[in-house]
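ok trying this again, last paste got cut off
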Amino acid sequence: MKSNMVDETRRTEGTAPRASAGQRTHDLVLHALRSSVGAGRVLDVPCGTGAFLHALQGAPYQRLGADRQPGTAPPGAQRLVLDMSDPLPLASESLDAIVSIEGIEHIRRPFDFIAESRRVLRTGGRLFLTTPNISCARSRWRWFLTGFHNKAKCPLDERRPALRHHINVLSFPALRYMLHTEHFEIETVRTNRIKAAALAYAPLWPFQYAVSRVVFWRNVRDAQQARIARQVLRQMLSPAVFFGEALIVTARASS
């Protein structure tokens, strides 16, 4: 996990940390958090230099940040040093929300992070997770042509492994599988923005629907699994997933 992979922020004298996550990502996650979790204990991981924690100042939250690199926390917040792939040093069911902005694609064990998130969240708590959207049509076309997805466009530098590397970019179905098998339920799937270039792939939508429907229904025999397949198909063809730059997922911790 990289130290400032979520918000590589720059602090200018006399000002708050400035987020450089995808455009509008912080604002949308902040709105989702305030809409579904009115108060409680919130973990931001990885927190970088604390832009999101700073944005929560004045709100009724107990703020906790975590990052692989040590650093300072905004006034009233706490900061831990940890790796997202390792067990979280927190008691079970001790959090009301976890915010993880553009972090999961940088870690070696994303399944473990999702499992740990569920352990430390109270039932009904929320996980707000964002990651580059490699399930959009634009990224799939890049994969078809080059074997590399958008936001991971070329081979990583094997000589100099870096925390900023996208070593685990996740498709939407893979992310959904991780969440649902670890007792989360996806509530919303949004995107930060849809670029004009992405709309050029709109003519592919009917073709993708037709092919996906045929493939799914040929390979799904179970009625419950057919229901899941329909849900996944709807989500995959939604504007947020088919065209969006980043995935912004809100998941509820279920029993």
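PB: full thing came through this time. The chain has eight helices and seven strands.
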